[in-house]
Write a structure and sequence with these properties.
heterodimer, A: about 220 residues, alpha+beta, 8-stranded mixed sheet, 4-stranded antiparallel sheet, 3 helices, 12 strands, B: about 150 residues, 7-stranded mixed sheet
Chain lengths: ~220, ~150
């Protein structure tokens, strides 16, 4: 009896080997699946949200990649998509929060934050009737109030005529300027202008760099 | 004598036993593999493919909307897998989100879209293969995103 069944243990060993190798293969496949189990939803949402926030028409931005300080301080979570936990930080301070993202993916972007204010000054206008704005700006408001007897007929910005009235300019005027040039305003006047005849109000942008951090947990 | 008779039977019994064990083993292995391991693996793969397909679709929809301009007409091709786990599927617009609908319960998902406020609505659905996302103007201003089938 025992002699005839001598190859039964060999068979059992062979089957055990096959079972083991099948088990190892299935385990390898399972670990491959575990390795491929990325969560693309969070990363995609964080990426597209950060892109949305810094886009030129974004809820917080002035231009592409430039955020406005005022808009950041009044940011509301209305612009965020529903059904997702989202946290937006600027330079480490949370500015928008919806839900409580636990983990998730974080996208960081370097942005500029603009503090805009308007400054007013009265050029002395000694010598030439001209003044150079100390900062580049996209627009300015001129208040022209010449002394009696004097009249301003034209205002030029870098030799480009921006205001012209042969009858004399008197009042408040908004002018558009190029942001890419330092602007010199010159005045064509019938007589030498004195200090106080012109008041210039212009927009000043102070920019600081900051890191915008968007964490999304869908 | 009786010893001599049973000695002749023994090898065939042994062979039958071995063959039976192998057949049972193969049956057990096949049942285990095709009963749970392989379908589970296929579903796990389909889950990942579905997730990525949905994210790819969402990213394509978001990129189709131009950053500036209200007067736009965009048509953008999107290439999606023809089937997931051997079955057809559907990507539907649902409010401000995309939803993946599949016959298998474990394959599916929902992802929110981040679109500019100018976009009034997203509508239509995709059923895999060549797809087209169109951005059109709404008669009352703003934009509409429409998901349609490709012309192929």
């Amino acid at each position: 009896m025992s002699r005839a069944q001598a190859n039964l243990p060999a068979l059992v060993v062979a089957l055990l080997l096959v079972t083991t190798s099948v088990g190892v293969t299935v385990g390898l496949a399972a670990s491959a699946f575990a390795g491929a189990d990325a969560d693309p939803a969070d990363a995609r949402l964080a990426g597209s949200l950060s892109e949305r926030l810094v886009a030129a028409d974004g809820p917080l931005s002035v231009r592409a990649n430039v955020l406005s300080r005022a808009a950041v301080e009044n940011a509301s979570s209305d612009s965020l998509p529903e059904n997702a936990s989202i946290r937006v930080r600027l330079g480490g301070d949370p500015i928008l929060e919806q839900g409580d993202p636990d983990g998730g993916a974080t996208m960081q972007r370097i942005v500029l934050v603009v503090d805009a204010e308007r400054r007013t000054f009265e050029p002395a206008l000694t010598g030439r009737d001209a003044v150079t704005l100390p900062r580049r700006t996209s627009n300015a408001t001129l208040t022209i109030d010449p002394r009696p007897g004097a009249s301003v007929t034209a205002v030029r910005a870098n030799d480009r005529v921006v205001l012209h009235d042969p009858g004399g300019l008197d009042g408040t005027y908004d002018i558009a300027l190029a942001r890419y040039d330092t602007v010199e305003l010159s005045f064509d006047a019938s007589r030498d202008l004195v200090a106080g005849s012109v008041t210039v109000t212009y927009r000043v942008e102070t920019t600081t760099k900051a890191v915008l951090e968007v964490t999304a947990d869908a | 004598m009786s010893d001599q008779q049973s000695r002749a039977v023994v090898p065939s019994v042994g062979k039958a036993l071995e063959a039976g064990i192998v057949v049972m083993f193969v049956a057990l292995l096949t049942t285990t593999l095709f009963g749970s391991v392989v379908p589970n693996a296929r579903t796990a793969a389909a889950d990942e493919v579905g997730e990525r397909t949905l994210q790819h679709a969402a990213a394509s929809v978001e990129q189709a909307v131009p950053p500036v301009g209200a007067n736009v007409a965009v048509e953008r091709r999107v290439s999606l897998p023809g089937t997931i786990r051997g079955r057809g599927y559907r990507i539907e617009a649902d409010g401000n989100a995309l939803v993946l609908v599949h016959a298998n319960q474990r394959v599916g998902g929902r992802t929110p879209l981040s679109l500019p406020d100018r976009v009034r609505s997203v509508r239509g659905n995709w059923t895999g293969g060549d797809a087209v996302v169109r951005v059109e103007q709404h008669p009352d201003g703003g934009l509409v995103v429409v998901l349609t089938e490709g012309s192929a």
